[in-house]
Amino acid sequence: MNRKTIAVLSIAAACVLSAGTAAAFSSLHEQQEQSRAVQPEDDEPAPAYWLKEYNGRLAVFERGGVDPVRIIDLDVRTLPPYDRGLLQAGIAAGDRQELSRLLEDYTS
Fold first, then answer.
1. Residue 28, class by beta-carbon neighbours within 10 Å (0-12 exposed, 13-18 middle, 19+ buried)?
2. CA distances for 23 relative to 30, 35, 36, 62, angstroms
3. pLDDT in tens, 91-108
4. Cα dihedral value 72, 77, 81, 86, nearest 10
5. Which residues sit opposite 47 in a β-bridge?
6. Is the backbone of residue 41 left (phi > 0), alpha (psi -120 to 50) or beta?
């Protein structure tokens, strides 16, 4: 092999190595960002209430509760698909004031 071919191959190998390293760091950074988004902040208190769908109705659950503490006569099928999805997953309310605001939003 002549010098020119060796130089070109060396440059190509360096480019491939650099691109691979950049991709690995980018992937690692993306994974770290995703894990931060899923995990709640340590100093953030757990929500006191959850607003969820229960037997087709809007219901209030207390933290850790299995049975609703209040069932609102609102057929969730009448809500937009986005809101129904939120209620399937559960909407957190940190305190009574936030719970009241959410209930007002859904019932007015």
1. exposed
2. 10, 18, 20, 45
3. 999 999 999 999 999 988
4. 30
5. none
6. beta
At 12, which amino acid appears?
A
Give the CA-trace dihedral at 28, 35, 81, 86, to 10 degrees.
-170
Residue 45's CB is within 10 A of a number of other CB atoms, namely 10
pLDDT at 13: 63
Six token digits for residue 44? 């953030």
82 phi/psi in degrees, rounded to 5: -60, -45
pLDDT in tens, 24-44: 555 555 555 554 434 445 667
Structure tokens at 4: 């020119």
